[in-house]
Amino acid sequence: MPSRLRSAVTDWAHNLRRLLVPRPPWRAEAEFAFYRVEPSALHEQLERQRRWWRQGQLVGLGVVDALGLLDRDRLSGLRVLELGAGECMLGQALVQAGAAEVWAVDAVPKQIWAAAAHASQRETGGESSRLHCVIADVLDLPFDAGSFDLVVANLVLHHIRPLTGLLGEARRVLAPGGQFVALEPAPLVGMLVHDQTSDNEAPLWPGAVTSALTDSGFVQAAHEYQWVRLRSSVLGPLSPSYRVSAQRPGPAETARLRLVRELASSALPGLRVDTGCRFAALVKEQMAAIGNCVEQQGLLERL
Predict the structure, then answer these.
(1) Can you tell me the distance from the alpha carbon of 14 to that of 16, in angstroms, rounded to the nearest whole number?
(2) Core vs surface per residue 58-77: b (16+ CB within 10 A) or e
(3) Residue 57: which region, alpha, beta or left (left: phi > 0; alpha: psi -120 to 50)?
(4) pTM
(5) d(CA 62, CA 59)
(6) N or C terminus: fewer CB in 10 A for the chain?
(7) Of 25-34, 108-117, 174-183, 194-203, minimum mean pLDDT range
(8) With contact defined as beta carbons under 8 Å apart, do 212 and 168 qualify?
(9) How far apart are the two ends of the chain, measured CA to CA in Å?
(10) At what angle do helices 280-297 and 109-124 cross, to 10 degrees?
(11) Average pLDDT of span 97-124
């Protein structure tokens, strides 16, 4: 058996075992330990941002389509929150697809800094950016209740325990009538091709997510298996991914963005930080490491 396939099968078996073992609560230390700052990776991140921009966010638009959101009329005027945004492929595609603005939240500066810098450069160049990048804890968001019309997440839920903690926050910041939509790797097939990340990660059955959505106060919780590249659900549980969706109950209201804590500017362009973040020390340390690498390599001068 080729080594790459053997490694994939080993990771898959490991992930399946995690289905049966209760997972501890999400730990910032585990996430930061995995997403270490590597100078070569920072350059690659900037290159990805440039490539996605040149390609018109085509890859991200495929994810938007898989989430059932590729509808400019539907997105027009919506304020969107993306949880666990990573490099903001989805967030930027949502802007491209017509969202009024996207607030992209991630815990780890190494993941989101390049998207923030790229968005900041476009704003400096005279194009107003509708993407706002923030370092914050998805279990304790700095936004007031009813701040968003739509909350999305891509390959994030299986990182977080307790799941009801994340979903409760998503419901809180949604305006009444607002929708939550997420895409997840399916345990049987998706975890075979999905690279393992931090020790926080463990696969989730779609039924576990819809149950947690209901327990968190959502209504109309549902799931559908998805093969994103083929834009098909015909394979059911043998698909690599699944989509979950739910709605905050109540008559629909327009979101009104309000902060419960200050978002401080940082030394990294375009990136703001929740001043009440509980793992602020880890954030500060990693941002300093990124800043040193960026300055030494002159990365931002190449934007």
Answers:
(1) 5
(2) eebbbbbbbbebbeeeebee
(3) left
(4) 0.91
(5) 5
(6) N
(7) 194-203
(8) no
(9) 43
(10) 60
(11) 92
- Token pair 């394979």 is at which residue? 235
Q: What is the per-residue pLDDT for 259?
A: 97
pLDDT digits (tens, 9 = 90+) for 158-205: 999 899 999 999 999 999 999 999 999 988 875 555 566 678 888 889
Which structure tokens are listed for 159? 């990182």
DSSP 217: T
pLDDT in tens, 86-98: 999 999 999 999 9
Task: At 200, list the tokens.
Answer: 């926080």
* Spatial contact of 271 and 129, defined as CB atoms under 8 Å apart: no
DSSP 239-301: SSEEEEEEE--SS-------BSS-EEE-SSTTEEEETT-TTHHHHHHHHHHHHHHHHHHTTGG
Distance CA 11, CA 31 (A): 18
Please give the DSSP secondary-structure letter assigned to residue 235. T
State CA 280 to chain mean position distance.
19
Angle between helices 206-215 and 163-173 (to 10 degrees): 50
- Structure tokens that stand for 113 in this block: 């800094």
Helical packing angle, 39-54 and 109-124, nearest 10°:
50
* Confidence tier at 229 by pLDDT (50, 70, 90): confident
